[in-house]
Amino acid sequence: MARAKAIKILLVDDDEVVRESLAFCLQQEGYQVTEAQDGLEALEKIKLSHYHIVILDLKMPDIDGIKVLQKINDIDTDTNVIILTGHPSLESAVGTMKLGAVDYCTKPFNIEDIKRLVREIAIKKGLIRRKLEDLLIIIGKKIRETRKSKRMTLVQLARMTDLSKSLISQIENAKVSPSVSTLDKISESLDIKLTDLFDNES
């Protein structure tokens, strides 16, 4: 699974100030950012390399964002496109969404909103995981490995903790977010410290 630093973003905007400031902020977040000053340059870059996310200005002098979006769909259907525009309209919003754009943002935009949107797309597409999800996976793995090392079945652990077998199974598979009291019961039954459940070392 790709980490943030492996996620490639293409910024397409004829406004150099907007493009460079946005590129700088996204690079600070660890993303690999490439810039294109117009639609034609963007399409050439997309033909040569895959980009996970394209942030595309709607109004550009050579070829508008709608046409670029259409051509992106022809070249790489796995690209997630965010539309930026300083001239928002219901018609363009609906049109770009119908063409597969994942979001439509108006200028001036809040950079924090753009960073949040990019992260949400990356998470939804499985490019990065939330920190909570990572933690749940660590906890589940630790419980399962410790239980098996003690030759304890799910049924036995359920009886010892007074928790359901189904709940413990879901915790081991990182399907639910357990309470601290639940984890305390499990760690006590496994004869380990509660903090040991958060240890990522095998």
Architecture blueprint of SSEs:
Layout (H helix, E strand, L loop, with lengths): L7 E5 L3 H13 L3 E5 L2 H10 L4 E5 L7 H11 L4 E6 L4 H9 L4 E4 L4 H14 L6 H19 L4 H8 L3 H8 L7 H10 L13
Parallel strand pairs: 1-2, 1-3, 3-4, 4-5
Helix pairs in contact: 2-3
Shape: elongated
Which class of the largest domain in CATH terms? Alpha Beta
* Computed structural class: alpha/beta
Beta fraction of the residues? 5-15%
Mean pLDDT: 89
- Main sheet: which strands, in order across? 2-1-3-4-5
Describe the protein in words.
The protein is of the alpha/beta class and 202 residues long. It folds into 2 domains: 4-124, 3-Layer(aba) Sandwich (Rossmann fold); 131-198, 434 Repressor (Amino-terminal Domain) (Orthogonal Bundle), CATH 1.10.260. It is 50% helix and 12% strand. It is built from 9 helices and 5 strands, in the order βαβαβαβαβααααα. It has helices at residues 16-28, 39-48, 65-75, 90-98, 111-124, 131-149, 154-161, 165-172, 180-189, and strands spanning 8-12, 32-36, 53-57, 80-85, 103-106. A 5-stranded parallel sheet has the order 2-1-3-4-5, sandwiched between helices. Strand 4 (80-85), helix 4 and strand 5 (103-106) form a beta-alpha-beta unit. Helix 2 packs parallel to helix 3 (65-75). The chain starts with 7 loop residues before the first strand and ends in a 13-residue tail after the last helix. Residues 1-5 have low confidence and may be disordered.
